[in-house]
Amino acid sequence: MADQIPLYPVRSAAAAAANRKRAAYYSAAGPRPGADRHSRYQLEDESAHLDEMPLMMSEEGFENEESDYHTLPRARIMQRKRGLEWFVCDGWKFLCTSCCGWLINICRRKKELKARTVWLGCPEKCEEKHPRNSIKNQKYNVFTFIPGVLYEQFKFFLNLYFLVISCSQFVPALKIGYLYTYWAPLGFVLAVTMTREAIDEFRRFQRDKEVNSQLYSKLTVRGKVQVKSSDIQVGDLIIVEKNQRIPSDMVFLRTSEKAGSCFIRTDQLDGETDWKLKVAVSCTQQLPALGDLFSISAYVYAQKPQMDIHSFEGTFTREDSDPPIHESLSIENTLWASTIVASGTVIGVVIYTGKETRSVMNTSNPKNKVGLLDLELNRLTKALFLALVALSIVMVTLQGFVGPWYRNLFRFLLLFSYIIPISLRVNLDMGKAVYGWMMMKDENIPGTVVRTSTIPEELGRLVYLLTDKTGTLTQNEMIFKRLHLGTVSYGADTMDEIQSHVRDSYSQMQSQAGGNNTGSTPLRKAQSSAPKVRKSVSSRIHEAVKAIVLCHNVTPVYESRAGVTEETEFAEADQDFSDENRTYQASSPDEVALVQWTESVGLTLVSRDLTSMQLKTPSGQVLSFCILQLFPFTSESKRMGVIVRDESTAEITFYMKGADVAMSPIVQYNDWLEEECGNMAREGLRTLVVAKKALTEEQYQDFESRYTQAKLSMHDRSLKVAAVVESLEREMELLCLTGVEDQLQADVRPTLEMLRNAGIKIWMLTGDKLETATCIAKSSHLVSRTQDIHIFRQVTSRGEAHLELNAFRRKHDCALVISGDSLEVCLKYYEHEFVELACQCPAVVCCRCSPTQKARIVTLLQQHTGRRTCAIGDGGNDVSMIQAADCGIGIEGKEGKQASLAADFSITQFRHIGRLLMVHGRNSYKRSAALGQFVMHRGLIISTMQVCHHIHHVPSVLLSAGPGREARDGDALPGAVQGPHQGGILMYGALVLFESEFVHVVAISFTALILTELLMVALTVRTWHWLMVVAEFLSLGCYVSSLAFLNEYFGIGRVSFGAFLDVAFITTVTFLWKVSAITVVSCLPLYVLKYLRRKLSPPSYCKLAS
């Protein structure tokens, strides 16, 4: 079985010879990081398992080139779409788009990105021209605005049809009515659209201008000068103050912080609100003065611009020293654009500007979103147009193609154009504006803003909801909830007991230290050599709290005093070191919560730098510890550790904490860890196992030598370093188990359950760690308790992805958790298969996703499923996903308003999405669909009446442009298929009942038409509002007044045609009862059928209500 194959199997020489071709394929890809590990995996004998791999790869497929696999899924999809149907539906658009794209690429070839050498403070030495450092979010400029907006409107057949019909009225031989009856609706739609686009463009222009005009201090030979953000060039030395936005991608050279490091906020880049620690280049940080940056000859070699925000490779070289100084640069030495300096003042050299920065490369261009209802109406318009052409040809055929038949054909097209009413767009746009107004005025979802008023009905047609985690589902506020020592557990209500134990323990230690100032170390050695005895609860609590406050990467930060100004450049700011002025910063909120908890129980972290830590005991005594080694947390190891030396006792201790799956094999045998971890996980707590190991000086010196040698190795450095560290991770003493809760947003669980019950599939896309994302998926009930979770293994090659996909294929009704790197590999080779399998899951969690990956996942769902997608987020890293989705929702939260401003809809809390989708979205869709059907229904009635007139040889010019254009459009309707039925009854009823008065055909037919439409509206409305009653009578009044204002259409002045308006005739009882009878006959059968249908086959909501 595929899931039983070991991850890195050892292969025999005979099997290696049998699969030499396969191995050659992998070796052809060239060397890359981790190639040795990959090769061991790829040398596995896969031939015995190919029968169990029913994906697209066959035995021959392994011998193809890598480029073939990249195109296979797309090729297979395109192959299914070929043919006449494909060309009629989408082929012509695809061909036009391809041709236009080819011409654009010919005219504007994309610049090839290259690695660069950047000299400090010398922009003129740049070998190539780099883009301006300006932000531009506008879609149009002064010259392209009008053509662009017109193209976006008339690329749809519906609008193009209206334009052609309106333009035809300028031809005298084809004119059949007043120009304003055609151009007024079309002009209204265009005016509203262009006004809305102009306002949006102006707002975008103002926002861009504000950002591009921000002033920064540029360091030159003559001192500091102020420059605009848009004028910054590659090679400039830029000074960025605290709480100021970093204008471009830079390499971190100097800081005002004494430790040579600073914190930055990256919430607008990767969505994480935790501060990131950045380290300055040691060579420039050690320079005596700021001006010495111009006295040295140094440059930075940077890799070519790329999208990955989590990696960077470069070197710093100082040439004027002997020997030259070379320093490697990594991600911790970079300052990416759109991040915020959180501590100190920094100086950096600009390496990427404008569209080459990481933030811009990870932001997709906004697209003009079109609702699915508009696309469906556009397709329906095409079908109705074909029916219109067929009907016109039939009418010309009945005439026998006499005279100028081609002109008659076009006139028939104009006469029957009521089938596609030109007022359709006007009614729909006005309706959408009302829907948006109702959303913003809803008191149950205060603060809601509708920024795109053209797609409110999309909210009611969603199938996939893609949500961010940090700040969207969670508040990103960690609270310490549980401490378990194996025999005793402490919760939120018993923390005072821990505080008492810690205070007593340190007071006892202090008194012992006072009585034995000289003999403390020998006493401790004697105690360590004594036989082990069971420790008291107080000592176990003391050791656990001490381990928690020492094993982390948290740094306490103190704010500068207000009113203190720097007299000298980069002077260290005066700081207030009181407890009230202290805040903690770390790359993980879990660690901040742990350190804040230790402070609450009496043991406080007061300061930390790269080499030392200071703790304050409940009595005020300060304990100093030297940081000997730090092993940071990684997704592979799932743990972090630190080796510290107590400066007062010279004791060396190795502390470690991590996930239970990583720590269980490391700690000494116990019978409670696994059970308690499961209990805490079921409560939605994030668990960490804490352990320690005491080291002698000899043990540490031996470890340090081996560790230093492993770090200097040029081959398999990471593997050798891990092996050395693992030599310490044996038989560690288990101290405690901690439980931390990530506070969810209000009502997240019922909201997700409601969306899931409504048939919406929810995917969580986050840049956070896999363990964190999995825990939140459980606690938020994104994954129900009865569902299994399949964690997709880390894959780096096609073979690994193949095996893991087959293992995943065997799972049923389980949620999927996958990392961004594995997702990239699967999409490269098995795009169609992966999306098909993932769409069958009740929930999907993608962790470690970059902003571009989030947008790509949205696009894949749209392409492979054809369903409507919605993306919701609150940070700048969610903008690409929000803009790529069919419907984007932004939340105004702690991460700013960038997502809210880029979204189609803005809300203040995640729970509001339930009412926004279930109530407003659903109602908007039903109302727009009903409104569109009603307008077409009215057009079909008028066109049917036209046909009946022509068949009975009544001059069709009498109905050439009747008052049907003035009749008010209703708000609801039956199906469009009722139009021909009712139109026929109206006309033939007039023939039967008004045979002697048929000269009044226009007044008779249109009066019956208006009454029929108003009656159908009244029969369709479920809940009456006083505005509906007013609208009914107002519509009838408009028609009555039109008899006087549009008297020419009703016969006055057209006696030559045998028609005239007789006011006395239309006010008679006979006229009124006969018209009423025609109206009842046209509506009653439809109402009876509708009543019987609701009784015999009621909708689902009626069954639930009863």
Q: Which of globular, elongated, flat, extended, rod-shaped describes the shape?
A: elongated
Summarize the biggest pleated sheet: 9 strands, mixed
**Class of secondary structure makeup:** alpha+beta
Low-confidence stretches are: 1-54, 56-82, 518-533, 562-574, 953-976, 1051-1060
Protein architecture, described:
By secondary structure, the protein is of the alpha+beta class. Helices cover 45% and strands 17% of the residues. It is built from 37 helices and 33 strands. Helix 15 packs across helix 17 (537-550). It is elongated, with a radius of gyration of 37 Å. The protein starts with 12 loop residues before the first helix and ends with a helix. The model is unreliable at 1-54, 56-82, 518-533, 562-574, 953-976 and 1051-1060 (pLDDT under 50).
Question: In brief, what are we looking at here?
Answer:
With 1106 residues, the chain is of the alpha+beta class. The protein contains 37 helices and 33 strands.
Comma- or semicolon-separated keywords:
1106 residues, 9-stranded mixed sheet, disordered N terminus, alpha+beta, 37 helices
SSE layout:
Layout: H1 13-18, H2 20-27, H3 35-42, H4 66-81, H5 84-107, E1 116-119, H6 145-154, H7 157-168, H8 180-212, E2 215-220, E3 223-228, E4 237-240, E5 249-255, E6 261-265, H9 267-270, E7 275-279, H10 282-285, E8 298-302, E9 314-318, E10 325-329, E11 334-335, E12 340-341, E13 346-352, H11 358-361, H12 372-399, H13 405-415, H14 424-440, E14 449-450, E15 462-467, E16 474-484, E17 489-490, H15 495-515, H16 520-529, H17 537-550, E18 555-558, E19 582-585, H18 589-600, E20 604-608, E21 612-616, E22 622-631, E23 639-646, E24 652-658, H19 660-663, H20 673-682, E25 686-695, H21 697-711, H22 717-728, E26 733-744, H23 748-757, E27 761-765, H24 770-779, E28 788-791, H25 798-809, E29 814-819, H26 820-829, H27 831-839, E30 843-847, H28 851-865, E31 868-873, H29 879-884, E32 887-891, H30 898-902, E33 905-907, H31 912-951, H32 978-993, H33 1001-1020, H34 1026-1045, H35 1063-1066, H36 1069-1096, H37 1100-1105
Parallel strand pairs: 15-27, 15-31, 27-30, 28-29, 29-30, 31-32, 32-33
Antiparallel strand pairs: 1-8, 2-3, 2-4, 4-13, 5-11, 5-13, 6-7, 6-12, 8-9, 9-10, 14-33, 16-17, 16-26, 18-19, 20-21, 21-22, 22-23, 23-24, 24-25, 25-26
Helix pairs in contact: 6-8, 12-13, 14-31, 15-17, 21-22, 23-31, 25-26, 26-27, 27-28, 31-32, 32-33, 32-36, 33-34, 33-36
